[in-house]
Amino acid sequence: MIPLEELTQIAIQAVLKAGKIIHNNTHKNINIEKKVGGNTYASQIVTKVDKACEEVILKHLTPTCTSYDLGLLTEETEDNKSRFDKQYFWCVDPLDGTLAFINKRPGFSVAIALVAKDGTPKIGVVYDPISATVYHAIHTKGAFKNGRPWVTTSQNNYLTYVTDKKLADTPNQNKIKDILHKKVMELGVQDYQEISGAGAVLNAILVAENAPAIFVKLPKKEKGGGSLWDFAATACICKELGVQATTFKGNKLDLNNKHTTFMNDHGVFYRS
User: Fold this and answer.
1) Which of 203, 240, 251, 268 gives the lowest tally of CB atoms within 10 Å of its CB?
2) Rounded to an integer, what distance in angstroms lies between the CA atom of residue 181 and that of residue 183?
3) How far does the chain reach from its first CA to its final CA, in angstroms?
4) Does pTM top 0.85 for this prediction?
């Protein structure tokens, strides 16, 4: 049996170390580099902070890959396909929400997941450096916030739409508006309100903390829609909270896609 509790604690230490690097650079002017990504600007940028966070995380995780025969997938390193050969693999986003980070606004985080070969997330760990909050979950063992059992209590009389890009700036805003209006009618609430600007990881956390809420990535032909590392950790956390994390059509998220790391083919839908 793989020691999920032990590996979770290692992942927590890793996100905290990365969080220190982020904190130390929060008020500095950071140079932006371009990289191969999806069709959005946010997916095509990287900084020295992303790379430094990945480096410190790997110092914690790499020994476990040897000890427990684990694969590894991390955003700033080329996919070595070990995730297809091993029974479990680490899935790492060293700095999610880089755009928020370089613009010096909240919405960035660190995320680590342990994912089974069949795409089931077994561990999810997220650190929000702004609030100094660690969220984590272990498959069938519950979700935790700063080490204490996390029980979501929010039940607003409106629907919260959580999004990285403001609805007014979204190409498919009419389709999104239709989804929102249908959900408002279904729930019998007054209207919807928008929370925008965070990366995908904290957007999922915001869905959990602002029920009823939704976060949507529509299916599309272009590469994008986030990648495996944007959703693996929160898929585990949300499952333990009873928050739905699925494809746009409501099917299980494929968190070990053999063809791509991008999620654009089937989209993503979080709802609480």
Assistant:
1) 251
2) 5
3) 32
4) yes
